[in-house]
Design a protein that fits this description.
mainly alpha, 13 helices, 4 strands, elongated
Length: 453
């Protein structure tokens, strides 16, 4: 390549480089203007966010007009400046409360300075969070109080749902006065004249509707209709569904811990009674494990079950079926006494026993047998239907097929009118009377003979 070509190429490179440098200089000269515009936009956005944070409301779904600060706000901070309260959809034509104008059982809230709504009412509120940059919308439905559901469990779920929307203070431990908005004909102007703010009125209306949407049964709705504040309505429901007070809970716990089984009672029935007490305690918040019920049941057994208690307590774990089985066996053995002592050896005319050997004779009396009848009760007889072959906890015999127990001899399959022992006793009494007459006649003949001598 010649020197002229090299010089021409160098000139082209120099020209291209100079053009690029000029282009970069023009772009750099425009950057300060763009930076200033961006900084202005950021300052404007931050100013809007600060204003929104300062204007946070007094709670969920409530419009605050400058009253006392609530959860999530600082005392003295401006609240909802420049916000016009919306018209109240829960106020009827006469100025009173219209409960039916709100949707059933739903409340929504935006945490973090956003808007929240309950039915048709929308207001400002910062919820639980003071961070204005965090927003989350939540939809909460009040749990329904069904007839078969436990009231205590429903009440816990209801209060938890109310806490989610920052409404629990209207039902439990309210720190601010609640307006008596229960009268549907009571105008809002009257409530305002009594010193209540619109925020308090709206919050009470929300709480009323939240509770009313959970009620299904007509008796519960009737109780609700008689109340004038949300807290009073929940308290009245407590009295209806849960009349036992805290003192009654302690009494129930004491009754459970001091449970004693009578010696003449079926152990299965006693265990079921203890389990029912434990279930009632669990519903009232006192947790009782099934293993503790079995352990306490063993302690409640009478002295006749001491040997069985030692056997069961030595086992690694307590099993309900094993406890019932051993208890029923001991109950059957203990039940073999009673009236059996006076009937154990009632011999007949054919050489029945002398009352000691228990039926060793083979005559007509009820002493005949194997000597192990124990007055008609034998080990293995069902406690419920009095039949053999099964035990009471597995008994499926209909009531019509229950065996009859005799009141005279404690036997089964007949009543007192057909008892063979009663017939034997009557015959024995008749023979005794005949022998007495014969003896008396012999004595008279002996006296006559003596007089003749």
């Amino acid at each position: 390549m010649s020197g002229a070509d090299v010089a021409a190429e160098a000139a082209d490179v120099t020209t291209s480089t100079q053009g690029r440098v000029d282009n970069l200089e023009s772009k750099v000269s425009g950057l300060p203007d763009e930076v200033q515009q961006l900084a202005g936009l950021l300052r404007s956005a931050l100013g809007k966010l600060e204003k929104e944070g300062e204007s946070g409301g007094a709670g969920v779904g409530a419009v605050v007009t400058g009253d006392a600060p609530t959860r999530g706000t600082q005392e003295g901070a401006p609240q909802n400046e420049g916000i016009t309260p919306p018209s109240d959809p829960a106020v009827g034509p006469g100025g009173g409360r219209d409960r039916g104008s709100l949707p059933q059982g739903e409340t929504t809230e935006t945490y973090g300075g956003g808007t929240g709504g309950f039915g048709g009412f929308v207001g400002e509120g910062d919820g639980f969070h003071q961070n204005p940059y965090s927003k989350m919308r939540v939809s909460v439905h009040a749990p329904r109080l069904e007839g078969g559901q436990g009231y205590c469990s429903w009440r816990r779920a209801f209060i938890q749902a109310a806490k989610t929307v920052d409404m629990d203070g209207q039902f439990v431990g309210a720190t601010e006065p609640q307006p008596d908005v229960g009268d549907m004909n009571k105008p809002k102007a009257t409530l305002l004249a009594e010193g209540y703010s619109e925020a308090q009125i709206h919050r009470s209306l929300q709480a009323f509707h939240f509770l009313s949407s959970a009620l299904v049964r007509e008796p519960d709705k009737a109780v609700f209709g008689r109340c004038v504040t949300p807290k009073q309505a929940l308290d009245e429901l407590d009295k209806v569904h849960n009349p036992e007070s805290q003192v009654a809970t302690q009494e129930l716990l004491s009754k459970f811990q001091n449970f004693a089984m009578p010696a003449d009672k079926n152990p299965t029935e006693s265990l079921i009674a203890m389990e029912q007490l434990a279930s009632r305690l669990n519903e009232r918040g006192v947790k009782v494990e099934a293993s503790f019920v079995l352990s306490l049941f063993l302690s409640a057994l009478p002295a006749e079950y001491d040997h069985a208690k030692l056997t069961l307590q030595s086992a690694p774990t307590l099993d309900r079926g094993e406890v019932i089985r051993v208890g029923l066996l001991v109950s059957a053995d203990n039940g073999s006494g009673g009236k059996a002592g006076r009937n154990r050896g009632r011999g007949g005319r054919g050489g029945g026993g002398n009352g000691e050997n228990g039926g060793s004779g083979n005559g007509n009396g009820n002493g005949g047998g194997d000597g192990s009848s124990y007055g008609g009760r034998r080990r293995g007889r069902c406690y419920r239907c009095k039949r053999r072959g099964h035990q009471s906890f597995s008994c499926t015999t209909p009531i019509a097929d229950f065996m009859t127990q005799c009141e005279n001899c404690d036997g089964y399959g007949h009543d007192k009118s057909k008892c063979p022992s009663a017939k034997d006793e009557e015959e024995a009494k008749g023979e005794t009377a005949v022998m007495a007459v014969a003896v008396a006649s012999d004595d008279e003949e002996l006296d006559v003979a003596r007089e003749a001598l």
